[in-house]
Amino acid sequence: MTIQSLPPLKDKIKPIMDLYYKGHFLEALDSIEALKFFYPNEPLIFNICGVFYARLEKLDEAITSYERAIYILPNYADAHNNLGNALRRVGKLDAAIYSLEKALTLKSNYPDAYYNLGSTFRALGQFDDAVKNYKKVITIMPEHYEAHFFIGISFLKLRQLDLAINHFEKALSIKPDYVEAHSNLGYIFKKLGQHDNAIKHYKEGLAINPDEPELQHLLNALIGNTSIAPPKEYVQKLFDSYAEKFDDSLVKKLGYNLPFQIKELALKADLSRTKFKKVIDLGCGTGLSGKELRDISNNLTGVDLSENMVAKARELDVYDSLIVGDIEDTLSSSQEKYDLFIALDVLVYIGAVKSIFRTVRNCCKKNAFFIFSVETQEEDGYSLLKSARYSHSVEYILKTASENFKLIESQDVKLRKEKKEWIDGKLFIFQAS
């Protein structure tokens, strides 16, 4: 068959797109790739290839395909838009903006390009610019619920809560089963102290999707239903989102200073030491404690569930080893033994502590020390607070720890501020028995 006798391109592409829309992505990709032999200079084929590669998370191949389409047809607005979106997804945000703005110069009323540009500015933290571009989307497509949702997210980041509420509610008026909109409205109303409204939205979100453990945890916190522990996904997302502003917010605004006392506390636990052989910083976060522990550690390991937190800790270059993972899972699978365990602001995200005490004990060298903090409560046991953190009674901690540790010292501490009031806590130093 000669090139001239080939059937029209649309007849070739339609069955391939049918495969794609049915979810047969690899088969669709193989078929569109085969067409390149017959149509080596057809930009549409390269653009479609890029779409398929992007759907399969092969973003480098997608970018190459889009660039080829643009090389063949420089004014191909769709390819510029798709390229910009792929560049955003790989973190090349300045290049993404250039491609998306090029798409808009070629096609001014282009909602997809405005939407992708809004998402790129949002990724850069330029939320005013994000709002401006998302609003262009809803000017063209008033029922674009995702644009309304991300305007809400942007206003939430800008702390313009009333405007955020308006757009989340608009998103729900268009798509009533939008669980994420209910979740964000619950968060805002909780932040505003409007707990009844927050409970309403958490319940509505759970009615749509009962398999939302994070929503259930937040609802539990507001209605006083104490669970054993929060979902790992909740803690991970919380700290992933908090990583960039963690040190500034927690230390400068909320007065959190326990990490800066940890070196003195650890040396006080055993006056015969100037250094510990193997130290592990449980819930290391961005490494606030690590900077202090480095001076008294021959070997220092950090563990945190949040990948973004660990990335910030890695920048300090004070840990010999950093692990992204759950504390109990990490210790349970470890063959290492440590002589100092630190867990500051960690047990506030764990309700029942018996399991973690036992897991720590199994990784202790002889006479190892375990130093940790808790938020305190008067009544015995532990409680899930409206903050979605846990508080523990001194009696509960002492009783639970006594199976594996002996108390060396405890002291009352002011953990951090919340709504301009200090949170009462307790710092414990235990030794493996």
Shape: elongated
Instruction: Give the full name of the CATH homologous superfamily of the largest domain.
Output: Tetratricopeptide repeat domain
Task: Report the strand count.
Answer: 9
Q: Fill in the CATH topology of the largest domain.
A: Serine Threonine Protein Phosphatase 5, Tetratricopeptide repeat
- DSSP strand content: 15-25%
H/I helix tally: 21
Unreliable runs, pLDDT <50, ≥5 residues? Answer: 1-6
Helix content: 55-70%
Mean pLDDT: 94
Give me the strand/helix succession. Answer: HHHHHHHHHHHHHHHHEHEHEHEHEEEHEE
In CATH's first tier, which class of the largest domain applies? Mainly Alpha
Give the N-terminus to C-terminus distance in angstroms: 83 Å
If classified by CATH, what would the architecture of the largest domain be? Alpha Horseshoe
Q: Structural class of the secondary elements? A: alpha/beta
**Rg, Å, rounded:** 27 Å
Report on the structure:
This protein is 55% helix and 16% strand. It has 433 residues and is of the alpha/beta class. The chain has two domains: 3-223, Serine Threonine Protein Phosphatase 5, Tetratricopeptide repeat, CATH 1.25.40.10; 238-432, 3-Layer(aba) Sandwich (Rossmann fold).
